[in-house]
């Protein structure tokens, strides 16, 4: 997906580890007790109703030939695969994801689960992450990129020549792509996954393991910005201001209640690039 609005990543602001947390180089954070496992929220008046945090690491795939040629590459077709530079980026993104809780973001849990869009480029990126963190890649349809329909494979100038201002109306979430999806629809399906993961996490916590967990979600530019925009309560017309660069990571921390509903969400990082 090509977008002219590029926002810089949110700077990394580490926070102190919760008391009683034991981190080593090779194993996830192991709280000394379930009460110490909870990271205190500065905002919630009902902290006792919250389970341990769930960290979602949203990873955009590495570049493809469509990315570098600035052509619309959506969720309606399986390809393209990663290019040679994209494969290098995927390996670096895998190392970045592996380093969470080990070398960076020391207050966050290790990534132990990997979900990915079914498209080739995300499956290839996710495979690199799965190998690095030791997790099987789970395919998740709701992480699929927006379907561009008739715009698939076109550049923005070609779309403007074909359909005038339609691309700008689409970017402001005012319309569907012809034969495809709206940005709002992508946000609805992507955020439904976030809610489901929060419910599953809360159920695991209530079943006896109230510990922080980290999950990588390997997806696409529009899908990631739509999930973040929904989490922040932004109107869909403003989601275009969020820009995850190829192979970057975006971190969303979810605080769920014991019943699995979401109480708070914190966007810790947007579009942190690989080096």
TrEMBL record:
Taxonomy, superkingdom: Bacteria
Ranges for region Disordered: 1-47
InterPro entries with a match to the protein in the record: His_Pase_superF_clade-1, His_PPase_superfam, PGM_Phosphatase
Compositionally biased residues, Low complexity: 26-37
CDD domains on file: HP_PGM_like
Protein's name in the database: Phosphoglycerate mutase GpmB
Organism: Demequina sediminis
């Amino acid at each position: 997906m090509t977008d002219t609005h590029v926002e810089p990543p949110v700077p990394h602001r580490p926070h102190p580890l919760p008391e009683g947390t034991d981190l080593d180089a090779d194993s996830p954070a192991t709280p000394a007790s379930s009460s110490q496992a909870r990271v205190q929220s500065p905002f919630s008046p009902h902290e006792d109703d919250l389970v341990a945090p769930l960290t979602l690491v949203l990873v955009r795939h590495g570049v493809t030939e469509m990315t570098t040629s600035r052509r619309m590459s959506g969720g309606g077709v399986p390809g393209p695969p990663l290019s040679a530079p994209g494969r290098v980026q995927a390996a670096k993104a895998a190392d970045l994801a592996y380093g969470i809780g080990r070398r960076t973001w020391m207050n966050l849990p290790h990534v132990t689960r990997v979900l990915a869009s079914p498209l080739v480029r995300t499956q290839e990126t996710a495979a690199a992450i799965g190998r690095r963190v030791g997790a099987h890649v789970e395919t998740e349809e709701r992480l699929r990129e927006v379907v561009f329909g008739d715009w698939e494979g076109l550049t923005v100038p070609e779309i403007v020549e074909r359909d005038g201002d339609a691309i700008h109306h689409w970017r402001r979430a005012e319309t569907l792509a012809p034969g495809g999806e709206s940005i709002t629809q992508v946000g609805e399906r992507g955020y439904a996954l976030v809610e489901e993961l929060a419910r599953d996490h809360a159920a695991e916590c209530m079943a006896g393991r109230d510990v922080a967990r980290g999950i990588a979600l390997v997806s696409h530019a529009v899908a990631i910005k739509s999930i973040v925009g929904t989490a922040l309560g932004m109107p869909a017309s403003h989601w275009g201001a969020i820009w995850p660069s190829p192979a970057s990571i975006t971190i969303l921390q979810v605080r769920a209640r014991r019943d699995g509903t979401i109480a708070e969400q914190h966007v810790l990082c947007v579009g942190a690039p690989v080096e």
